């Protein structure tokens, strides 16, 4: 067992995702947390587990453990990327996958269909799940938690320049920004006020990413008046993106930061409603 076993989730290899439902209008998701690839695809893979892990979002599930509503996807984005539109959710060319050749040989049609079936099932589940929360509370906020690399030139290479790489990037491109400003702006200020190692968090909007993922787009399309989906990208300052080793102190702090944002979200959503 790795020394950080308590900070990762190790589901049954056949599980697609886990969904927890509690008494709250706030939902957290970690849809790129997964690392499993189904057994029928193993012979086609052209990447090692370590290569895949670099582009996955490990530990993002840990950040949302204090939310009563949580959805964690257990399949690797290299099997099916839930955060891309259906037609691009399988990385069939290097251009779709950071230049990586994901498959050593072409995938059969039935394998592609099976992976797309997971994508279809996820969004059918998500709509039903969110409809229940909408009916109970009238509106909801979904925190779509991701992470991103900032040392792409190698383990000893330079970091991405500060101006292009906030510690936390808030993506809002698919959101009706004016409608949800009373919820979003206080959240951003709350995150910025969090102090860690003597400094406040660097939180910026639409810098490294613009929040163009499929999940936030889906929420805003299906729940235009009641659903606020916020893409939150953590720079991987909480781990070594080349070895996969986490900084436990930082993991715990980021979990605390998300937990402390919940009262603000509940209050602003209640006032808005």
What does this structure look like?
The protein has a domain at 11-36 and 54-76 and 138-272: 3-Layer(aba) Sandwich (Aminopeptidase). It is built from 6 helices and 9 strands. The chain has helices at residues 49-55, 60-63, 109-137, 177-193, 214-222, 248-272, and strands at 17-20, 26-30, 69-73, 140-148, 168-171, 195-196, 199-200, 203-205, 227-235. The strands form 2 sheets. A 7-stranded mixed β-sheet has the order 1-3-2-4-9-5-8, with helices on both faces. It has a two-stranded antiparallel sheet with strand order 6-7. Helix 4 runs antiparallel to helix 6 (248-272). The N and C termini lie far apart (46 Å).
List keywords for this structure.
273 residues; alpha/beta; 7-stranded mixed sheet; Aminopeptidase; 6 helices; 9 strands; two-stranded antiparallel sheet
Short characterization:
The chain has 273 residues and is of the alpha/beta class.
Computed over alpha carbons, the radius of gyration is 18 Å
Whole-Å distance between the termini? 46 Å
Main β-sheet, in a few words? Answer: 7 strands, mixed
Could you say which structural class the secondary elements and strand pairing correspond to?
alpha/beta
Tally of strands:
9
Strand-helix topology:
Layout lengths: L16 E4 L5 E5 L18 H7 L4 H4 L5 E5 L35 H29 L2 E9 L19 E4 L5 H17 L1 E2 L2 E2 L2 E3 L8 H9 L4 E9 L12 H25 L1
Parallel strand pairs: 2-3, 2-4, 4-9, 5-8
Antiparallel strand pairs: 1-3, 5-9, 6-7
Helix pairs in contact: 4-6
């Amino acid at each position: 067992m790795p020394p950080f076993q308590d900070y990762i989730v190790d589901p049954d290899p056949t599980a697609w995702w886990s969904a927890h439902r509690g008494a709250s209008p706030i939902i957290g998701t970690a849809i790129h947390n997964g690392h499993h690839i189904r057994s029928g695809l193993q012979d086609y893979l052209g990447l090692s587990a370590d290569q895949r892990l670099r582009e996955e979002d490990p530990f993002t599930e840990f950040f949302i453990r204090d939310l009563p509503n949580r959805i964690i996807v257990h399949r690797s984005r290299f099997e099916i990327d839930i955060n891309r539109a259906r037609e691009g959710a399988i990385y069939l060319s290097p251009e779709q996958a950071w230049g990586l050749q994901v498959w050593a040989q072409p995938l059969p049609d039935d394998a592609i269909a099976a992976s797309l079936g997971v994508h279809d099932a996820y969004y059918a589940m998500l709509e039903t799940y969110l409809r229940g929360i909408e009916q109970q509370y009238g509106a909801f906020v979904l925190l779509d938690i991701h992470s991103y690399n900032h040392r792409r030139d190698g383990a000893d290479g330079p970091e991405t320049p500060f101006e292009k790489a906030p510690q936390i990037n808030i993506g809002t491109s698919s959101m009706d920004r004016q409608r949800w400003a009373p919820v979003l702006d206080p959240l951003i200020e709350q995150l910025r006020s969090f102090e860690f190692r003597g400094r406040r968090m660097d939180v910026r909007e639409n810098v490294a990413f613009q929040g163009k993922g499929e999940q936030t787009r889906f929420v805003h399309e299906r729940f235009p008046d009641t659903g606020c989906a916020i893409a939150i990208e953590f720079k991987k300052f909480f781990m070594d993106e080349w070895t996969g080793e986490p900084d436990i102190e930082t993991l715990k702090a980021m979990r605390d930061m998300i937990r402390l944002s919940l009262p603000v979200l509940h209050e602003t959503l209640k006032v808005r409603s």
